[in-house]
Amino acid sequence: MSFIGNYLVSQIDCRDVVTQKILDVLFIHKKQNRFLTLFVYFTLCFTEKHSLTYIYTAFSHPVKLPGIHEFTAMGLLDNRMIDYYDSTVQKKIPKQDWMKEKLQQEYWDKGTQSRQSKQQWFKVNIDILINRMRQTSNDTHVLQWMHGCEGEEDEHGNLQFKRGVDMYNYDGDDFLAFNDEHQVWVATLDAAVPTKRKWDEVTALKDYTKGYLEKECMDWMKTFLKYSTEQLRNASRPDVYIFAKKAKESSNVVLTCLATGFYPKDITLNIRRDGRVLTKDDGVMSSGVRPNHDDTFQRADYVEILRSDSATYTCEVIHPASNKQIHFDADSFLCIYLF
């Protein structure tokens, strides 16, 4: 994950064309009589890599736009939001059911105190930057901080630290970043140089930052992955539906086999005619595996057939992770039409 251009953009795993847009936040900042648009667009692909990231965004004064708060903080596990805080709610809240179920109230209380403290820190430091850069306080300015870690599974399935990220962005420009390998702060703008020099002299800060990225962040990531996987496995079996709808040709119907609510995403879905698996050559089309809103997946395959076809059509779904194999005879469903 890296800052590209004006803001944060996640990496895409090109092995999988199925991606999920899970976050789309629009910030508008008036600068030099023009509007600068900052956006976050995350895509999620399932690989052996995992990430835990926290993003903080603070404006110099309230922005009168719906859904945009003076201060916002969010936690992201594999680019999926797991917790949230803003200056209006003033509470750190879970955004996943497993976060709410697995973590005690003490965790959320301490998290709320931490977010409130950071909200004040951001307010003070935006004012410092405005003065340092000789800007007018009448304009809207924005300071952002992203920090977190990325891990990768080794050949034994153990999650190992790959890299950490701790960077600041001001008014849409990269400002300051921590070089984890060399334990130094890197200033991107001239205005960041005084901060770099000051922070480089604080050994305890550099040691803490490195320790958090490489150890504490990774420990939390492993814990969160364990909790999320436990919940999803309990609700991973697919529900299967088969139905038909009218085709453009009045003599035909479109037979559809839908599997939904399964996790993980690996699944086999076949439409059989008299026992033979139909393929693309037979006109079978597929939606591919797509994400549901609850972190499970769905897939629908369909084929157009003659209404008068007397063959036996079967929907076959095999989901290895849940040890579930389902066969549905389609004959009795051909009278159901969905418009």
Oligomer: single chain
The assigned structural class equals alpha+beta
What proportion of the residues is helical, as a percent range?
A: 10-25%
Question: Radius of gyration from the CA trace?
Answer: 25 Å
Write out the CATH superfamily name of the largest domain: MHC class I-like antigen recognition-like
InterPro entries: Ig-like_dom, Ig-like_dom_sf, Ig-like_fold, Ig/MHC_CS, Ig_C1-set, MHC_class-I_related, MHC_I-like_Ag-recog, MHC_I-like_Ag-recog_sf
Organism: Oryzias latipes
Domain Ig-like: 238-327
Keywords: Glycoprotein, Immunoglobulin domain
Commentary on this structure:
This protein is of the alpha+beta class and 339 residues long. 28% of the residues are buried. The strands form 5 sheets. It has an 8-stranded antiparallel beta sheet. Strands 13, 14, 17, 18 and 19 form a 5-stranded antiparallel beta sheet that branches. It has 2 domains: 2-234, MHC class I-like antigen recognition-like (Murine Class I Major Histocompatibility Complex, H2-DB, Chain A, domain 1), CATH 3.30.500.10; 239-333, Immunoglobulin-like. The protein is built from 4 helices and 21 strands. The protein is 22% helix and 43% strand. Pfam families: C1-set (PF07654), MHC_I (PF00129). InterPro entries: Ig-like_dom, Ig-like_dom_sf, Ig-like_fold, Ig/MHC_CS, Ig_C1-set, MHC_class-I_related, MHC_I-like_Ag-recog, MHC_I-like_Ag-recog_sf. Residues 238-327 form the Ig-like domain. This is Ig-like domain-containing protein.
Keywords:
339 residues, Murine Class I Major Histocompatibility Complex, H2-DB, Chain A, domain 1, five-stranded antiparallel β-sheet, 2 domains, Immunoglobulin-like, eight-stranded antiparallel β-sheet, alpha+beta
